[in-house]
């Protein structure tokens, strides 16, 4: 069985070599016919004259008839050569077109779909860093489900896929944002309707709803929040996955509800933010791509991607951020700090596969 496989590989390699030799022989054939000289034709193709002569002889042997009449001082096409010239030109033109298409394909940007919450500045830093490393990327924004659909439909070449924190190459700690000041970390039980006033900020939060952004309307975040809410005595309607992010934020501003979001998102919305302790929830992300080469190339910019997400690479417990009350690293709020372009971070811990899956 193994010998058969080796034989098939050898036959395939020989076939490729024969095909390439045929193209170069046809290229020499067309050049010699146009210039009427073996010497000039060889020079036009960049090959020594003995090589050009061998190519013509090999092509004549393969086709079974002479292409040139060498009886005079120069060379002239035989009737058979005249009949074969058009086919040879088409083959050479097709090969040249294919090489041009290959060059264009290599220059085509890698399309990357990211969460809508990624800021323009951080995405620009990622793009500039990639450009400095010779990689061109085309950034697109979409919610979680559409990112996966676009990857499956090959409308994009790579996505930041929403996954449970434990499976992610990056994670984003989530907390609660409110229009008013929050005096400390939030527990979901504080939203439970209270019959009497209690200490702390319970009276203000009692009976309020927790609003989820579209980015968090995924099973590993939404369902965990709902299970925790039910176990803590909250009513079913108190955890709301709104139809749009503006609708969720409007309820926070107008009704005093809480918004589940990252610290960076709260700052962008002008809301006060505190970590959510019970339950502690984070978004997880991994890089999924249709090509292992794309996954490896993009994975070199782990730090830039983390900044875009407003999170940190998985396993990070120290650095620019500070640990929250859960002991997890919370990214420091952006203050216009500069990130040097062209300085990619280390490859993230997720294993990328050509089929777009990630582990």
- The quaternary organization reads as single chain
What is the strand tally? 16
Which outline best applies?
Answer: rod-shaped
Structural class: alpha/beta
Along the chain, the helix and strand elements come as: HHHEEHEHEHEEEEHEHEHEHEEHHEEE
CATH C-level name of the largest domain? Alpha Beta
Beta-strand residue percentage: 15-25%
Give the % helix.
40-55%
Rounded mean pLDDT score? 82
The low-confidence runs, each spanning 5 or more residues with pLDDT under 50, are 6-17, 318-328, 332-359
* SS field, number of helical segments: 12
Q: Could you explain how this protein is built, in words?
A:
- This protein has 359 residues and is of the alpha/beta class.
- It has three domains: 105 residues, Arc Repressor Mutant, subunit A; 98 residues, Periplasmic binding protein-like II (D-Maltodextrin-Binding Protein, domain 2), CATH 3.40.190; 106 residues, D-Maltodextrin-Binding Protein, domain 2, CATH 3.40.190.
- The chain is built from twelve helices and 16 strands.
- The strands form four sheets. A six-stranded mixed beta sheet has the order 4-3-5-13-6-14.
- A hairpin with a 6-residue loop joins strand 1 and strand 2.
- Helix 1 crosses helix 3, helix 1 crosses helix 4 and helix 2 packs across helix 3.
- The radius of gyration is 32 Å and the shape is rod-shaped.
- 38% of the residues are buried.
- The C terminus is likely disordered.
- Belongs to the LysR transcriptional regulatory family.
- Keywords: DNA-binding, Transcription, Transcription regulation.
- Pfam families: HTH_1 (PF00126).
- This is DNA-binding transcriptional regulator, LysR family.
- GO terms for molecular function: DNA binding; DNA-binding transcription factor activity.
């Amino acid at each position: 069985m193994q010998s058969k496989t080796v034989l098939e590989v050898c036959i395939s390699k020989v076939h490729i070599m024969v095909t390439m030799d045929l193209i170069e022989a046809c290229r020499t054939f067309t050049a010699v016919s146009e210039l009427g000289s073996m010497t000039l034709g060889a020079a036009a193709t960049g090959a020594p004259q003995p090589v050009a002569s061998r190519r013509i002889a090999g092509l004549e042997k393969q086709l079974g008839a002479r292409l040139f009449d060498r009886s005079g001082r120069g060379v002239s096409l035989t009737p058979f050569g005249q009949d074969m010239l058009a086919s040879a030109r088409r083959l050479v033109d097709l090969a040249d077109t294919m090489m041009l298409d290959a060059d264009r394909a290599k220059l085509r940007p890698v399309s990357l779909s990211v969460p809508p919450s990624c800021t323009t500045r951080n995405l620009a830093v990622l793009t500039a860093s990639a450009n400095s490393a010779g990689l061109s990327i085309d950034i697109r924004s979409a919610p979680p489900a559409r990112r996966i659909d676009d990857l499956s439909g090959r409308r994009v070449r790579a996505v930041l896929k929403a996954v449970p924190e434990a499976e992610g190459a990056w994670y984003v700690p989530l907390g609660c944002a409110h229009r008013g000041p929050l005096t400390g970390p939030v527990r979901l039980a504080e939203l439970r309707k209270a019959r009497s006033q209690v200490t702390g900020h319970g009276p203000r939060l009692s009976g309020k709803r927790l609003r989820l952004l579209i980015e968090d309307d995924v099973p590993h975040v939404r369902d965990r929040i709902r299970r925790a809410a039910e176990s803590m005595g909250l009513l079913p309607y108190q955890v709301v996955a709104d139809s749009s992010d503006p609708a969720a934020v409007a309820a926070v501003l107008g009704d005093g509800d809480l918004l589940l979001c990252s610290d960076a998102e709260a700052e962008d919305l002008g809301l006060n933010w505190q970590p959510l302790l019970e339950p502690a929830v984070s978004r997880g992300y991994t890089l999924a791509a249709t090509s292992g080469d794309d996954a490896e190339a993009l994975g070199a910019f782990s730090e830039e991607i983390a900044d875009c997400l407003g999170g940190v690479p998985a396993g990070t417990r120290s650095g620019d951020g500070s640990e929250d009350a859960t002991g997890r690293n919370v990214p420091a709020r952006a203050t216009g700090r500069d990130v040097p372009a062209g300085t990619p971070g280390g490859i993230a811990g997720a294993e990328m596969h050509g089929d777009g899956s990630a582990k």
